[in-house]
Each structure stands twice: as C-alpha cells, then as structure tokens.
Amino acid sequence: QVLLVESGGGLAKAGDSLRLSCTGSQRTLNSYAMAWFRRAPGKERDFVAAVYWSGDSTFYADSVKGRFTISREKRENTIYLQMNGLKPEDTADYLCAASRAPISADALTYRATLANPSNYNYWGQGTQVTVSS
Fold it and tell me: Rounded distance, CA 37 to CA 105, Å?
C-alpha cells in the first residue's frame, strides 16, 4: 500500500504564501507523475498542477498559473506546491495524487490525462488551506 501524506496547509490572508508538501511512503513513487488537486466545500476535485515522473515538465490550471509552482525532490519522495499571491478563492482541501497513466507522445493528450482525477492510482488525505480577504 502506497501512502501519501500532505502537510503545510493552514490559515493565510490574501496575498500571503504557503508551501505544501506531499511525501510518499515508497521510492517507487519516483516513477509516477504527481499532482495537486483541490476540493472546495460542496465541489468536485479540481486539478491544480502536475509534474511528470522525470520532474522536468510541469503544467498548471489557468487559475493558479503564475502564482503556484509544483516541484519534486526524488531523493525525499516528496513533491511541493509553493503558493504565492493567495486569494480567498484558493480556499480548499488540497490533495496530492500519484499516477501511473501511460505517457502519451502527444503532450496535450498527456496533460489532459494528468488533469483528470480518475487517472490517479493513489491519493493523500488532504491538507486544508483557508485564505481570508
């Protein structure tokens, strides 16, 4: 069983920064694409950002592009989400996830795959981020 544990959530004011971490229980996760999703109360999970298994490619939801940065540290089995310029609409439970979906030669196809929560094999429990105005 692969476990993912998130940390770093909390209370913030608009404009503040937070850094979320997600650590996996097994080094095999280094062969997985990893992502952050978020779920606001009463809403579905929304894609936030993803990083390829290699760590050299990332992409973001339009709502966070330019403000959030995803990265991974393979030696630590950990991914991070640096969140700058937080807004009240960023308030949500943030979940990390790991995917072994086949890599597509077409980048757009692969990104669509990684943006779909149904293509993830493992999920963390989430860490709450609350941003006040």
Answer: 24
What is d(CA 52, CA 32) in angstroms, rounded to the nearest whole number? 7
| Residue 129, strand partner residues | 10, 92
Please report where in the chains the tokens 């990332």 appear, as a residue: 58
Rounded to a whole number of angstroms, the CA Rg of the chain reads: 14
Query: Rounded to 5 degrees, what are φ and ψ at 3?
Result: -110, 140
Say how far apart CA 123 and CA 133 lie, in whole Å: 30
* Nearest of 11, 14, 129 to residue 81 by alpha carbon: 129
- What's the mean pLDDT in 23-44? 90
pLDDT at 2 over 90: no
CA distance 2 to 26: 6
